[in-house]
């Protein structure tokens, strides 16, 4: 009987140790600026189409309405032609800044800015509240590896 209990205990310990990494991976660390976030979404924007830009903004706004802004972390990553949304002269600038005020983060790809500057001789003017990231796709990869769900509206 004692042997059987010892084996059961060893088996339970082995199962627990085997499943521990899955449990840890399922629970991402709290975000410093959103410690109560239960949901994490990264929205990819790589098109200069104004309808797609508007859709990304609508999705972010709808998520903020559906969840308490403190309970959801939303990050919009713009790269390639998608950075047009974050240009200072974009007609949607007020909507972008309103979402930023509600805790949505907007990332702009520095590689894209560098490429535009090389090709045109002028760096695009980007809204100051956008967060520069070196590689937009790399930022998306990092976020998804850390518990974010990727949505490409």
Automatic annotation (TrEMBL):
Keyword terms, alphabetized: Signal
Signal as UniProt keyword: yes
InterPro entries for the chain: DsrEFH-like
Region forming the signal peptide: 1-26
Keyword Mitochondrion in record: no
PANTHER family documented for this protein: BLR3518 PROTEIN
Protein name: Twin-arginine translocation pathway signal
């Amino acid at each position: 009987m004692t042997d059987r209990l010892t084996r059961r205990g060893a088996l339970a310990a082995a199962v627990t140790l085997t499943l521990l990494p899955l449990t840890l991976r399922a629970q991402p660390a709290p975000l410093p600026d959103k410690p109560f976030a239960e949901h994490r979404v990264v929205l990819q924007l790589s098109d200069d189409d104004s309808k797609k830009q508007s859709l990304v903004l609508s999705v972010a706004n709808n998520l903020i309405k559906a969840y308490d802004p403190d309970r959801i972390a939303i990050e919009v990553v713009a790269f390639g032609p998608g950075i047009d949304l974050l240009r200072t002269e974009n007609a949607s600038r007020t909507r972008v800044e309103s979402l930023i005020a509600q805790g949505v983060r907007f990332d702009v790809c520095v590689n894209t800015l560098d490429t535009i500057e090389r090709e045109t001789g002028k760096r695009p003017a980007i809204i100051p509240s956008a967060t520069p990231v070196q590689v937009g796709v790399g930022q998306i990869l990092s976020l998804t590896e850390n518990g974010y769900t990727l949505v490409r509206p």
